[in-house]
Amino acid sequence: MKVMISQPMRGKTEEQIRKEGEEVIEKFNKLHIEVVDTIFTEEAPENINRAIYYLSKSIEILGQVDALYLMKGWELARGCRIERAVAKEYGIKILDTDFLEEKPAIKKVM
């Protein structure tokens, strides 16, 4: 399975974004799930809306994955909401933040 992470980025440095993403990627790696990198480092062409440029690149990647994982705060980020809407419309599995949360062990009662 391949997963794309939808991560709020506004107001964060590339270092902060990568650190937050690495924690999520480690959890997916433990589950043997491949994460496709969507932190784009190239500059957007001149005279083009940067946000739309990078969103279009994310949507291109979204077409190559099996699931979209939504990081905490996704509902406050326009790009994340758009990625979620695209995933929903095209039948791509959507994984909310609780997907990677630790589940408490179930104790047997005798």
Helix/strand/pairing category:
alpha/beta
Detail the poorly predicted runs: none
State the end-to-end distance: 38 Å
Shape: globular
Proportion of helical residues: 25-40%
Count of helical segments?
Answer: 3
The number of distinct β-strands equals 4
Rg, alpha carbons: 16 Å
Give the helices and strands as they follow along the chain. Answer: EHEHEHE
Query: What is the beta-strand fraction?
Result: 5-15%
Number of domains: 1
Q: State mean pLDDT (0 to 100 scale).
A: 90
| Largest β-sheet summary | 4 strands, parallel
CATH architecture: 3-Layer(aba) Sandwich
CATH topology: the name is Rossmann fold
Indicate the multimeric state: single chain
Strand order across the largest sheet: 2-1-3-4
The CATH class: Alpha Beta
Secondary-structure blueprint of this entry?
Blueprint: E1 2-6, H1 14-30, E2 34-36, H2 50-62, E3 67-70, H3 78-89, E4 93-95
Parallel strand pairs: 1-2, 1-3, 3-4
Helix pairs in contact: 2-3
Key terms for this structure?
alpha/beta, Rossmann fold, 4-stranded parallel sheet, 38% helix
Overall description:
There is one protein chain. This protein has 110 residues and is α/β, with parallel strands linked by helices. It has a single domain (2-100), classed as Rossmann fold (3-Layer(aba) Sandwich), CATH 3.40.50. The chain is built from three helices and four strands. The chain has helices at residues 14-30, 50-62, 78-89, and strands at residues 2-6, 34-36, 67-70, 93-95. A four-stranded parallel beta sheet has the order 2-1-3-4. The radius of gyration is 16 Å and the shape is globular. It starts with a strand and ends in a 15-residue tail after the last strand. The mean pLDDT is 90.
